[in-house]
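Please go through the sequence line and token line underneath and see whether the fold suits the sequence. See right below:
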Amino acid sequence: MVRGFTRRFRPLEILTEEEIEGIHRAALDVLRETGVTFEHGRALKLFEQNDCIVDYDEKRVRFPPGLVEECIRQAPSTYRLRARDPENDLSIGMDRTYFGLAPGQNTVDLDTWEDRVATQQEFRDFVTVLDYLDTMGWLICYPYFGWEGVDPVMAMVEITAGMIRDSTKVVEIGYQLDSEVFCFEMAQVVGMEVLCPIAASPPLTYYSDACEMAFRSVESGFPIDLCSGGVHGGTAPATVAGAIVSDTAEKLAGLVLVQLIRPGTRVVAMDQTTPQNMQTGSPFFGAIGCSLHMVAETQLWRRYGIPHRNSQAGYTNSKRIDFQNGYERAICAQNTALCGASMVSLIGGIYGEVTAHPVQAILDHDIAGMIGRFLEGVRVDDETLAVDVIHEVGPIPGFYLGQAHTRKWWKREQFVPEVSDTLTYAEWRESGRKSCLDYAQEKLEEILDTHRPTPLTPGQEEDIQRIEENARDYYTKKGLME
């Protein structure tokens, strides 16, 4: 079963009520005065029918604040996401946090740290590991972006089929060249839901493919992941507050669209904003600014009563599994979990969204477990206060190791990592001086030797293969593949 974690204390908040209100009003002002570009005729007509000011020449939509706030109220605060295996369903919202995949386009060589395209077997192995890890809540549109030999136009279809075959967990799909149509069919074959992203293109733009994805997803009854990913100082203002205003305006515009298509549509708002490294011009993955943005924005969306997803924790500036990688991802993941995020993308990614590896996923499983234990907080009641046991043990030479209370409670209270080095120096020397990376590689071999994801039924497999073949025929007829 997927293990989510329930936070038992108030969420971390870094903004005052006045500051939250100021950001909200600023976002409404941007939506009313500047507006958002939607390059999609059907979307423009729908906005116009609902009292938005639409400039068809510029394809610009300006939103009345009352409409935006009504659409915020229509979005549910809690809901269920249905997986292929009902035991892996997710309960989104309230004080529940799930950790999920942080994907990478390529795999990485653990000796040289050079990236390369994965093989199909490496793709399947990665998905198998993700299926095994019980802190892994959901898979995101690609663990690796395809594998050797996959035609690029078929990548999203083949990836989704691979995730459905080798995992029973919730899957978020991607979209390119109508791939979502085939992905929806595959989900329906196995009786699961898919989380569907619609991505703004900062600043303040939605292209036609994102809009078409919104209509198709909502009309198919699937939940929506409202995505935006500006870069502070590049495609968003350089200030954290300004970047939140721009980012929020973009996501609220998408929220209005999906609620106008079907009121009550389930959504989660995703934050993928990073500062720009002004020394190199590239996104500053792993920066503390990512945490500041995500914590503050999560606080805002908690006020809206809409689940929020933070997606930067699993992306670091390090190209290796090393100390920098560890502190950048752990700080960001813990901050975002403490602030009340419903979903945190942590597991598996290494550098940016460029590389990922199952060994990293196994290490992240321990990070997720540690953070999750912290979220569960300190239980205080007659039994945990342990006054009777303290009386019984008394002063030295008393000790607690042999007490029934210790046998009952130590494992409930402690989190025991699976692949950390927890040995004494003497034990470490005698056992081969292994590091956590060594243990994670051993764990990878164990998982691949022993874990067998629940297979599709023969009928389901036949249907999935048919849908894949239909996709190949579709792209061949359109002249996009041979």
User: Anything to note?
Assistant: The chain has 17 helices and 19 strands. The first helix runs from residue 17 to 33.
